[in-house]
Amino acid sequence: EATGLDVNPQIIKKLHNQRHKPVVQKTIDTLKIIEKEEIDHVRKGDRWFRWLCERRGMDAQETFIQILHKYDLLKVKPHMNIEARKEAGFSCDELLSLGAKKCERGVL
Q1: CA-to-CA separations, 98 to 18, 39, 92, in angstroms, rounded
Q2: Which of 6, 38, 57, 78 has the most crowded CB, counting CB atoms within 10 A?
């Protein structure tokens, strides 16, 4: 789900030089709404994941990393929207594990 947070800004950037066309501007506006809603969606998923891990006596961050390894998800390292992922609940440790070059702790 968080991949949507990563690609939306890139798509908007690609469309930016065509924004004078009404349909393109409407698409950009729609993508901005989707991005905002996706942050909330990912935040909710993160909260439920952490709740479930806690209920099962599992460390959420460690479990997340294990899932990434199990399904070979660390090979793909797209450009990450660090700020949006942090706003959605990702920790810097999780982001760094996913391949982020840097992550400022406590800064949103």
Answers
A1: 33, 18, 10
A2: 38
